[in-house]
Amino acid sequence: MKDVTPIADGWRLRLPESGSAAGGGAGGDAAPALGSGTVPAQVPGCVHTDLMAAGLLKDPFLDRNETAAAWVGRADWTYETVLPPRATGHERTDLVFDGLDTAAEIRLGDTVLGATRNMHRGYRYDVTERYGPAGETALTVAFTSAYTEAERVRALVGDRPNSYPEPFQYIRKMACSFGWDWGPTLVTAGIWKPARLEHWSTARLSGVTPLVTVADGTGRVEARLEIERTASGLNRPLTVRLRVGETRVEADVPAGADRCTVTAEVPGPELWWPHGYGAQPLYDCEVTLVDAGTEGTDGEGGVALDHWQRRIGFRTVTLDTAPDEKGTPFTLLVNGEPIFARGVNWIPDDVFPTRITPDRYRRRLQQAKDAGVDLIRVWGGGIYESDDFYDACDEAGLLVWQDFLFACAAYSEEQPLRSEVEAEARENVARLAPHASLVLWNGNNENLWGFRDWDWEQDLAGASWGEGYYLGLLPRVVAETDPTRPYWAGSPWSGSWNHHPNDPAHGTAHSWEVWNRRDWTGYLEDVPRFVAEFGWQAPPAYATLRRALTDDPLTPDSPGMLHHQKAADGNGKLDRGLAHHFPAPADFDTWHYLTQVNQVRAIACGIEHWRSHWPACAGTVVWQLNDCWPVTSWAAIDGDEREKPLYHELKRLYADRLLTVQERADGLIAALVNQSARDWSGTAVLRRVAVDGAVLAEARLPFTATARTVAEIAVPRDLVPPGDSTKELLTVEAEGPGGGEDVRALWFPARDKDFAYPAPRWDLELATSDGGATEVTVTARTLLRDLLLQADRLDPAAHADRGLVTLLPGERVTITVRGWDRPEPGAAAAALYCVNSAVQRTDPGDER
């Protein structure tokens, strides 16, 4: 069996000379005086984190330190270590890097082994003749600035348009490290994945791609193998053994052959399902390469040369795009079951990806699952994530839509990029093939749309821009490497140039006119077949702002706040969005609260509307789940891992059973959305209610929403508050199995700034639970609209189990707070906010 020696210890990072940086020292990009020599380097790691650990770089996430760190991305960097003498009886030794970020030259002693220019693939070098037993050998990885490499390629292939003033499309690197409308510009370099020495003899498994299918109750694993041999192994017969659960098969590999396929059939496998539809059974899948010409020690004959192991799941996935009377659907089917995708977009969870641990992946993905999310879209401006990410999705039952890494730019199809794109695609499609959670490959983010609508076509003047990748190369790679999964050319994409790329009636759509130019009520104007991106901004939690910023006073436009707002005119869009619904906020705290409320209202407006139109609309993917640093953004979970009110609202919006009031051509309806596997029957209780809680009219109407369907109830006209009413609202509750106080919908006929909210009054009680948490119970004495306890204002470590809640007079809610060591009623009262106060501009301390 091959031996593996990790190369993780003893690395040093050589500091650049003072004043040196790629492209010169203008704009603060020259290297400061750091001294000479080296500092310890962590592998896997990156230059920024090494410099911070050495005390040579301030945390770029704080205040405006990002600007002072710009020079790091323009400097060249060298990693150095020393390998011990080669001590192995194996015929061959390979030096392996799973990932280098990005343009690097690798030297062993005085020999240049090779050069790299792609962050998204691995590299292997035969060092048998160059790495001997005589003494230590120096290993050097010298990184050229990503800017230098990008500009070199730009000069070769010509200029092409993109959405940001950075050359990210000229280098195969995480695009968002060059900055985005939610991310900092921190252009990294480093050995970002493990490095090792592999010692082996005769032959090794150079590639394993298991194609997993299931039909007629039988699972099938077709393991496609690639084999590399030493000179002495060329004429040796080999055997491959495949084990899937308890099923074992083997196949002979003739002498000299470098490819082999071995197939196992598994009778009656348990099917893998997205969570909420069934269980997630996973089977061990093992491939062992055996030297058939030797006597084995495992009782099976032959000596094991190499071994590969993953976990797989049996399931089918198809994509329904057959034209219908409404256009072109985009519906995922898992095991034949049509899915309304309750999705979120995923960006790298840290702009320095090497800091993302397996535990951090699991925390974030568990948060997604707990919010009712069943689909994660891995966005194309980031990375192909670690196997730890996909393992967690396999276990949690989270479907993964994986973009190929192209975003918001025209990409050259000439060399040197084309060969890198193909190698990267083949490697990653094969690497991710074992994961049951992966259900869709998507060609790009917004590039087909950009070509049509963003004036690219004229600027390109016939130059290549990526179409050949999305409609030619990438679907071919998927079909050849893993044909068990569907491929879609882009997001948005209508499926054909016969329709506009972002036509909501065809394929996938992105909704960004809303937020960029229009109020969130604009979501109500169409029913896309699948909404792959839409979102509304809000700032992060207050404690996150206070950790990251020293602004005094802290205001929406204080220097640090503006620096941590990367969207074009982001604050202007926030303010215009508020102005549609609320009076101008009186102070920062009110602004902070109302922008959170408006984010929740926007996303709720879209999801409730689109879910009520299932199956015409087959999914919503919120932009975005997470942040990569502390920033005002569209995220539901901020850069310090704190849950914004939107996160808690997703629990309601993505629940199996959702009740919503919607306007139709004939008037108001109550839509009962039932995505569970059981029928939902009961009585819908509709009430027209006065602002003081008095019931002005009531109706009790039976309903049945069968499994995976939507039922509609017409709201009687006498229950609809008059359009000019500012003192009435409609409530709809579902009684019966599956009902309860959380399955309720409220409909207000007037905007908040026009509604006659009473001065808020409530009673407050605190109690300590057995587990040490604090239970904060609020009893409403008036209508309380969107009551929010901001737990992080009680203690930065505190968090609450719910977000916004609206209470009618006499109703109560208990909010559980953990991480609050010194509960005190006055502090709890000061951390409670509601729309009543914001609209009336009253002091929260007076509302008791």
End-to-end separation: 73 Å
Mean pLDDT, all residues? 95
- Overall outline: globular
- As a whole number of angstroms, the C-alpha radius of gyration is 29 Å
Quaternary state, please? single chain
What profile does the largest beta sheet have? 8 strands, parallel
Q: Roughly what percent helix?
A: 10-25%
Task: Provide a brief overview of the structure.
This protein has 848 residues and is α+β, with helices and mostly antiparallel strands. The protein is built from 18 helices and 42 strands.
Polypeptide structure, described:
The chain is of the alpha+beta class and 848 residues long. 19% of the residues lie in helices and 30% in strands. Helix 5 (358-370) packs parallel to helix 6 (387-396), helix 7 packs parallel to helix 10 and helix 15 runs parallel beside helix 16 (645-653). It is globular and about 90 Å long. The termini are far apart. Mean pLDDT is 95; it is low at 23-28 and 842-848.
